[in-house]
Amino acid sequence: MAYPFKYHDYFDLDALLPEEIRMARDAVRDWVDREIVPTIEEHAMDATYSRDWMKQLGEMGCFGPSLSLDAGGQGLSETGYGVLMRELERGDTSVRSMASVQGSLVMYPISAFGSPMQKEKYLKALGAGDLIGCFGLTEPDHGSDPGGMETRIVQDGSGYRLSGSKMWITNAPIADMAIIWAKNEEGKIQGLTLDMDRPGIRVETITGKWSLRASATGTIYLDDVAVTKDDFLPGARGLGYALKCLNKARFGISWGAIGAAVDCYHTALSYALEREQFGKVIGSFQLIQKKLAEMITVIAQAQLMAFRIGQLADEGKVTSAQISMAKRSNVHMALQVAREARQILGAMGITSDYSVMRHMVNLETVITYEGTHDIHLLITGQDVTGIAAYK
Fold first, then answer.
1. From its phi and psi, is residue 353 left (phi > 0), alpha (psi between -120 and 50) or beta?
2. Which residues are part of the catalytic machinery?
3. Of 156, 167, 146, residue with least CA distance to 222
4. Ordered DSSP codes for 37-64
5. What is the pLDDT of residue 1?
6. Cα distance between residue 98 and residue 322, in whole Å
7. Positions of the chain with pLDDT lower than 50, given as ranges
8. Angle at 382 between CA 381 and CA 387, to 5 degrees
9. pLDDT at 383
10. pTM for the full model?
11. How many CB atoms sit inside 10 A of residue 129's CB?
Protein backbone atom coordinates (compact mmCIF):
# COMPACT_ATOMS: atom_id res chain seq x y z
CA MET A 1 0.00 0.00 0.00
CA ALA A 2 1.40 3.40 -0.99
CA TYR A 3 2.10 5.89 1.75
CA PRO A 4 -0.96 8.20 2.07
CA PHE A 5 1.06 11.01 3.63
CA LYS A 6 -1.83 13.48 3.65
CA TYR A 7 -3.62 11.29 6.17
CA HIS A 8 -0.60 11.31 8.47
CA ASP A 9 -0.35 15.11 8.41
CA TYR A 10 -3.76 15.53 9.97
CA PHE A 11 -3.73 19.32 10.03
CA ASP A 12 -1.98 19.64 6.63
CA LEU A 13 1.00 21.42 8.17
CA ASP A 14 3.29 20.61 5.25
CA ALA A 15 1.11 22.90 3.14
CA LEU A 16 2.73 25.75 5.08
CA LEU A 17 6.19 24.83 3.80
CA PRO A 18 7.76 26.90 1.03
CA GLU A 19 8.40 25.19 -2.27
CA GLU A 20 12.16 24.76 -1.72
CA ILE A 21 11.58 22.77 1.47
CA ARG A 22 8.89 20.62 -0.13
CA MET A 23 11.26 19.84 -3.00
CA ALA A 24 14.03 18.88 -0.56
CA ARG A 25 11.52 16.83 1.46
CA ASP A 26 10.36 14.93 -1.62
CA ALA A 27 13.93 14.17 -2.70
CA VAL A 28 14.81 12.76 0.73
CA ARG A 29 11.50 10.89 0.94
CA ASP A 30 12.12 9.24 -2.43
CA TRP A 31 15.68 8.33 -1.42
CA VAL A 32 14.50 6.73 1.82
CA ASP A 33 11.93 4.66 -0.09
CA ARG A 34 14.48 3.65 -2.71
CA GLU A 35 17.69 3.14 -0.71
CA ILE A 36 16.77 2.58 2.93
CA VAL A 37 13.42 0.83 3.15
CA PRO A 38 14.37 -2.16 0.93
CA THR A 39 17.57 -2.95 2.86
CA ILE A 40 17.29 -1.56 6.38
CA GLU A 41 15.83 -4.67 8.00
CA GLU A 42 18.77 -6.73 6.76
CA HIS A 43 21.24 -4.09 7.93
CA ALA A 44 19.59 -3.95 11.35
CA MET A 45 19.53 -7.72 11.73
CA ASP A 46 23.20 -8.02 10.70
CA ALA A 47 24.33 -4.85 12.55
CA THR A 48 25.77 -3.38 9.35
CA TYR A 49 25.51 -0.08 7.52
CA SER A 50 26.44 1.31 4.14
CA ARG A 51 29.19 3.91 3.89
CA ASP A 52 27.52 5.00 0.65
CA TRP A 53 24.72 6.51 2.74
CA MET A 54 26.99 9.30 3.92
CA LYS A 55 27.98 10.37 0.42
CA GLN A 56 24.37 10.16 -0.77
CA LEU A 57 23.14 12.16 2.22
CA GLY A 58 25.73 14.79 1.38
CA GLU A 59 24.60 14.92 -2.23
CA MET A 60 21.02 15.56 -1.06
CA GLY A 61 22.10 18.32 1.30
CA CYS A 62 21.10 16.51 4.49
CA PHE A 63 24.17 17.62 6.44
CA GLY A 64 23.54 20.92 8.17
CA PRO A 65 20.81 21.96 5.72
CA SER A 66 20.06 25.15 7.67
CA LEU A 67 23.70 26.27 7.47
CA SER A 68 24.69 28.69 4.73
CA LEU A 69 26.05 27.50 1.39
CA ASP A 70 29.48 28.82 2.38
CA ALA A 71 29.31 26.62 5.51
CA GLY A 72 28.50 23.49 3.52
CA GLY A 73 24.73 23.64 4.05
CA GLN A 74 21.73 24.42 1.87
CA GLY A 75 20.65 27.70 3.41
CA LEU A 76 17.27 26.24 4.37
CA SER A 77 15.32 27.34 7.42
CA GLU A 78 15.52 25.50 10.74
CA THR A 79 12.06 24.13 9.94
CA GLY A 80 13.50 22.75 6.71
CA TYR A 81 16.25 21.02 8.69
CA GLY A 82 13.60 19.47 10.93
CA VAL A 83 11.54 18.25 7.98
CA LEU A 84 14.54 16.46 6.47
CA MET A 85 15.34 14.78 9.79
CA ARG A 86 11.72 13.61 9.98
CA GLU A 87 11.97 12.02 6.55
CA LEU A 88 15.26 10.28 7.37
CA GLU A 89 13.99 8.80 10.63
CA ARG A 90 10.93 7.43 8.88
CA GLY A 91 13.50 5.17 7.25
CA ASP A 92 15.56 4.49 10.37
CA THR A 93 16.88 6.34 13.39
CA SER A 94 20.41 5.22 12.54
CA VAL A 95 20.35 7.15 9.28
CA ARG A 96 18.96 10.27 10.92
CA SER A 97 21.55 9.99 13.69
CA MET A 98 24.40 9.87 11.19
CA ALA A 99 23.08 13.01 9.49
CA SER A 100 22.25 14.77 12.75
CA VAL A 101 25.73 14.24 14.18
CA GLN A 102 27.45 15.36 10.98
CA GLY A 103 25.37 18.52 10.62
CA SER A 104 24.39 19.62 14.12
CA LEU A 105 27.30 18.39 16.22
CA VAL A 106 30.22 18.71 13.81
CA MET A 107 29.48 21.26 11.08
CA TYR A 108 27.52 23.62 13.30
CA PRO A 109 30.25 24.16 15.94
CA ILE A 110 32.88 24.64 13.25
CA SER A 111 30.71 27.20 11.47
CA ALA A 112 29.73 28.97 14.71
CA PHE A 113 32.92 28.74 16.76
CA GLY A 114 35.70 27.72 14.38
CA SER A 115 38.60 29.66 12.92
CA PRO A 116 38.69 30.64 9.22
CA MET A 117 41.26 27.89 8.65
CA GLN A 118 39.04 25.25 10.29
CA LYS A 119 36.03 26.37 8.27
CA GLU A 120 38.01 26.21 5.05
CA LYS A 121 39.48 22.81 5.86
CA TYR A 122 36.36 21.00 6.99
CA LEU A 123 32.96 22.53 6.24
CA LYS A 124 32.40 21.98 2.54
CA ALA A 125 34.00 18.52 2.66
CA LEU A 126 31.73 17.56 5.57
CA GLY A 127 28.66 19.01 3.86
CA ALA A 128 29.37 16.97 0.73
CA GLY A 129 29.96 13.76 2.69
CA ASP A 130 33.59 13.61 1.53
CA LEU A 131 34.63 13.73 5.20
CA ILE A 132 32.80 12.07 8.07
CA GLY A 133 32.78 13.64 11.51
CA CYS A 134 31.82 12.69 15.06
CA PHE A 135 31.25 14.54 18.33
CA GLY A 136 33.05 13.50 21.50
CA LEU A 137 31.43 14.78 24.69
CA THR A 138 30.06 11.76 26.61
CA GLU A 139 32.57 9.73 28.62
CA PRO A 140 32.36 6.30 30.28
CA ASP A 141 31.75 7.89 33.69
CA HIS A 142 30.09 11.14 32.61
CA GLY A 143 26.85 11.18 30.66
CA SER A 144 24.14 13.41 32.14
CA ASP A 145 26.86 15.44 33.91
CA PRO A 146 29.25 16.35 31.08
CA GLY A 147 30.82 19.03 33.24
CA GLY A 148 32.54 16.25 35.17
CA MET A 149 34.52 15.12 32.12
CA GLU A 150 37.99 13.75 32.75
CA THR A 151 39.50 14.21 29.27
CA ARG A 152 42.34 16.69 29.69
CA ILE A 153 44.48 19.07 27.64
CA VAL A 154 47.87 19.84 29.17
CA GLN A 155 50.52 22.16 27.82
CA ASP A 156 53.66 20.53 26.47
CA GLY A 157 56.23 23.10 25.45
CA SER A 158 54.76 25.13 22.59
CA GLY A 159 52.02 22.54 22.04
CA TYR A 160 49.56 20.47 24.01
CA ARG A 161 48.76 16.86 24.85
CA LEU A 162 45.21 15.44 24.89
CA SER A 163 44.30 12.35 26.95
CA GLY A 164 41.03 10.68 27.93
CA SER A 165 38.19 8.71 26.38
CA LYS A 166 34.78 9.33 24.83
CA MET A 167 32.03 6.71 24.70
CA TRP A 168 28.80 6.10 22.74
CA ILE A 169 30.09 8.22 19.87
CA THR A 170 27.99 7.96 16.70
CA ASN A 171 30.07 7.74 13.49
CA ALA A 172 33.32 7.26 15.45
CA PRO A 173 34.35 4.00 13.71
CA ILE A 174 34.07 5.63 10.29
CA ALA A 175 35.01 9.22 11.17
CA ASP A 176 37.81 11.17 9.51
CA MET A 177 37.69 13.91 12.15
CA ALA A 178 36.06 14.72 15.46
CA ILE A 179 34.91 17.58 17.61
CA ILE A 180 36.34 16.75 21.04
CA TRP A 181 35.58 18.49 24.33
CA ALA A 182 38.20 18.48 27.07
CA LYS A 183 39.26 20.40 30.18
CA ASN A 184 42.40 22.47 30.21
CA GLU A 185 44.75 22.88 33.16
CA GLU A 186 42.54 25.65 34.54
CA GLY A 187 39.51 23.35 34.52
CA LYS A 188 37.89 25.22 31.61
CA ILE A 189 36.18 23.17 28.92
CA GLN A 190 37.53 23.65 25.40
CA GLY A 191 36.30 22.36 22.04
CA LEU A 192 38.83 21.06 19.50
CA THR A 193 38.89 19.77 15.96
CA LEU A 194 40.87 16.56 15.71
CA ASP A 195 41.86 14.50 12.69
CA MET A 196 41.36 10.86 13.57
CA ASP A 197 44.56 9.59 11.96
CA ARG A 198 46.83 11.17 14.57
CA PRO A 199 49.10 8.97 16.65
CA GLY A 200 47.59 8.11 20.01
CA ILE A 201 43.98 7.87 18.79
CA ARG A 202 42.27 4.51 18.90
CA VAL A 203 38.61 3.77 18.14
CA GLU A 204 36.85 0.65 19.35
CA THR A 205 33.52 -0.23 17.74
CA ILE A 206 30.76 -0.89 20.27
CA THR A 207 29.11 -4.22 19.52
CA GLY A 208 26.23 -6.13 21.04
CA LYS A 209 23.73 -3.28 20.66
CA TRP A 210 20.04 -4.15 20.49
CA SER A 211 19.28 -0.65 19.24
CA LEU A 212 20.57 1.57 16.39
CA ARG A 213 22.10 -1.55 14.91
CA ALA A 214 22.55 0.09 11.49
CA SER A 215 24.64 2.86 13.01
CA ALA A 216 28.40 2.90 13.63
CA THR A 217 29.00 3.63 17.32
CA GLY A 218 32.34 3.63 19.07
CA THR A 219 34.58 4.51 21.98
CA ILE A 220 37.44 6.93 21.29
CA TYR A 221 40.64 6.49 23.28
CA LEU A 222 43.00 9.48 23.38
CA ASP A 223 46.46 8.59 24.61
CA ASP A 224 48.75 11.61 24.87
CA VAL A 225 47.66 12.95 21.47
CA ALA A 226 49.66 15.92 20.23
CA VAL A 227 47.49 18.97 19.46
CA THR A 228 48.20 22.61 18.75
CA LYS A 229 46.44 25.90 19.37
CA ASP A 230 45.23 25.74 15.77
CA ASP A 231 43.11 22.71 16.73
CA PHE A 232 41.17 24.67 19.35
CA LEU A 233 37.77 26.01 18.37
CA PRO A 234 38.54 29.64 19.26
CA GLY A 235 34.92 30.52 19.98
CA ALA A 236 34.08 27.42 22.02
CA ARG A 237 35.49 27.74 25.50
CA GLY A 238 33.03 26.59 28.13
CA LEU A 239 30.45 23.82 28.53
CA GLY A 240 27.71 26.14 27.31
CA TYR A 241 29.08 25.93 23.78
CA ALA A 242 28.84 22.15 23.75
CA LEU A 243 25.26 22.47 25.00
CA LYS A 244 24.47 24.85 22.13
CA CYS A 245 25.49 22.06 19.77
CA LEU A 246 23.24 19.62 21.63
CA ASN A 247 20.34 22.06 21.24
CA LYS A 248 20.73 21.84 17.47
CA ALA A 249 20.74 18.05 17.65
CA ARG A 250 17.78 17.90 20.05
CA PHE A 251 15.79 20.14 17.72
CA GLY A 252 16.38 17.65 14.90
CA ILE A 253 15.49 14.72 17.14
CA SER A 254 12.15 16.31 18.06
CA TRP A 255 11.29 16.23 14.36
CA GLY A 256 12.95 12.91 13.59
CA ALA A 257 10.94 11.00 16.19
CA ILE A 258 7.78 12.01 14.34
CA GLY A 259 9.06 10.20 11.27
CA ALA A 260 9.48 6.97 13.22
CA ALA A 261 6.00 7.38 14.73
CA VAL A 262 4.43 8.03 11.34
CA ASP A 263 5.98 4.87 9.90
CA CYS A 264 4.74 2.80 12.84
CA TYR A 265 1.27 4.31 12.53
CA HIS A 266 1.14 3.69 8.78
CA THR A 267 2.26 0.09 9.28
CA ALA A 268 -0.42 -0.49 11.93
CA LEU A 269 -3.12 1.20 9.85
CA SER A 270 -2.24 -0.80 6.73
CA TYR A 271 -2.17 -4.04 8.70
CA ALA A 272 -5.51 -3.28 10.39
CA LEU A 273 -7.15 -2.75 7.01
CA GLU A 274 -5.84 -6.06 5.65
CA ARG A 275 -5.76 -8.49 8.59
CA GLU A 276 -9.01 -10.41 9.01
CA GLN A 277 -10.31 -12.03 12.19
CA PHE A 278 -13.83 -13.24 12.97
CA GLY A 279 -14.77 -12.68 9.34
CA LYS A 280 -13.81 -9.01 9.03
CA VAL A 281 -10.76 -6.75 9.02
CA ILE A 282 -9.52 -5.91 12.50
CA GLY A 283 -9.68 -2.22 11.62
CA SER A 284 -13.45 -2.50 12.00
CA PHE A 285 -13.15 -3.34 15.71
CA GLN A 286 -13.68 -0.54 18.22
CA LEU A 287 -10.53 -1.21 20.23
CA ILE A 288 -8.32 -1.14 17.12
CA GLN A 289 -9.93 2.09 15.97
CA LYS A 290 -9.37 3.53 19.44
CA LYS A 291 -5.67 2.73 19.20
CA LEU A 292 -5.35 4.19 15.71
CA ALA A 293 -7.30 7.32 16.64
CA GLU A 294 -5.17 7.92 19.70
CA MET A 295 -1.98 7.32 17.71
CA ILE A 296 -2.80 9.86 15.00
CA THR A 297 -3.93 12.34 17.66
CA VAL A 298 -0.61 12.30 19.53
CA ILE A 299 1.30 12.37 16.24
CA ALA A 300 -0.65 15.48 15.23
CA GLN A 301 0.10 17.10 18.58
CA ALA A 302 3.79 16.37 18.13
CA GLN A 303 3.71 17.80 14.61
CA LEU A 304 2.13 21.01 15.90
CA MET A 305 4.83 21.33 18.58
CA ALA A 306 7.60 20.68 16.06
CA PHE A 307 6.29 23.24 13.60
CA ARG A 308 5.96 25.84 16.35
CA ILE A 309 9.52 25.42 17.62
CA GLY A 310 10.58 25.53 13.97
CA GLN A 311 8.89 28.91 13.60
CA LEU A 312 10.50 30.15 16.80
CA ALA A 313 13.92 28.89 15.69
CA ASP A 314 13.54 30.61 12.31
CA GLU A 315 12.74 33.84 14.16
CA GLY A 316 15.71 33.38 16.50
CA LYS A 317 13.37 33.15 19.49
CA VAL A 318 13.39 29.46 20.45
CA THR A 319 14.77 28.62 23.89
CA SER A 320 16.76 25.60 24.99
CA ALA A 321 13.94 24.74 27.42
CA GLN A 322 11.40 24.70 24.58
CA ILE A 323 13.62 22.43 22.52
CA SER A 324 14.14 20.21 25.55
CA MET A 325 10.40 19.86 26.09
CA ALA A 326 9.81 19.04 22.43
CA LYS A 327 12.59 16.43 22.36
CA ARG A 328 11.31 14.70 25.47
CA SER A 329 7.63 14.83 24.54
CA ASN A 330 7.95 13.82 20.91
CA VAL A 331 10.32 10.91 21.54
CA HIS A 332 8.06 9.62 24.31
CA MET A 333 5.11 9.94 21.92
CA ALA A 334 6.91 7.99 19.21
CA LEU A 335 7.86 5.19 21.59
CA GLN A 336 4.25 4.86 22.78
CA VAL A 337 3.00 4.82 19.18
CA ALA A 338 5.52 2.09 18.33
CA ARG A 339 4.32 0.00 21.27
CA GLU A 340 0.67 0.42 20.29
CA ALA A 341 1.48 -0.46 16.68
CA ARG A 342 3.23 -3.60 17.85
CA GLN A 343 0.06 -4.58 19.73
CA ILE A 344 -2.04 -4.17 16.59
CA LEU A 345 0.33 -6.35 14.59
CA GLY A 346 0.31 -9.06 17.25
CA ALA A 347 3.05 -11.66 16.84
CA MET A 348 3.96 -10.30 13.40
CA GLY A 349 5.00 -7.09 15.09
CA ILE A 350 8.17 -8.67 16.48
CA THR A 351 9.40 -9.85 13.07
CA SER A 352 11.59 -8.11 10.53
CA ASP A 353 8.73 -8.37 8.04
CA TYR A 354 7.57 -5.09 9.53
CA SER A 355 9.42 -1.99 10.73
CA VAL A 356 7.70 -1.53 14.09
CA MET A 357 10.01 -3.46 16.41
CA ARG A 358 13.08 -1.93 14.79
CA HIS A 359 11.69 1.55 15.38
CA MET A 360 10.73 0.62 18.93
CA VAL A 361 14.19 -0.51 19.98
CA ASN A 362 15.78 2.46 18.21
CA LEU A 363 13.54 4.84 20.12
CA GLU A 364 14.64 3.24 23.39
CA THR A 365 18.04 4.77 22.61
CA VAL A 366 16.67 8.10 21.40
CA ILE A 367 14.76 8.55 24.67
CA THR A 368 18.15 8.34 26.43
CA TYR A 369 20.66 10.13 24.19
CA GLU A 370 21.13 13.88 23.78
CA GLY A 371 19.71 14.21 27.30
CA THR A 372 17.72 11.46 29.02
CA HIS A 373 13.94 11.51 29.37
CA ASP A 374 14.19 12.38 33.06
CA ILE A 375 16.90 15.04 32.68
CA HIS A 376 14.76 16.83 30.10
CA LEU A 377 11.87 16.73 32.56
CA LEU A 378 14.10 18.42 35.13
CA ILE A 379 15.13 21.04 32.57
CA THR A 380 11.46 21.92 32.19
CA GLY A 381 11.13 21.88 35.97
CA GLN A 382 13.98 24.34 36.31
CA ASP A 383 12.47 26.55 33.61
CA VAL A 384 9.12 26.84 35.36
CA THR A 385 10.38 27.07 38.97
CA GLY A 386 13.77 28.70 38.57
CA ILE A 387 15.31 25.91 40.67
CA ALA A 388 17.83 23.42 39.27
CA ALA A 389 16.93 20.05 40.79
CA TYR A 390 19.82 18.17 39.16
CA LYS A 391 22.66 20.15 40.71
1. alpha
2. 370
3. 167
4. TTTHHHHHHHT---THHHHHHHHHT-SS
5. 45
6. 24
7. 1
8. 120
9. 87
10. 0.94
11. 23
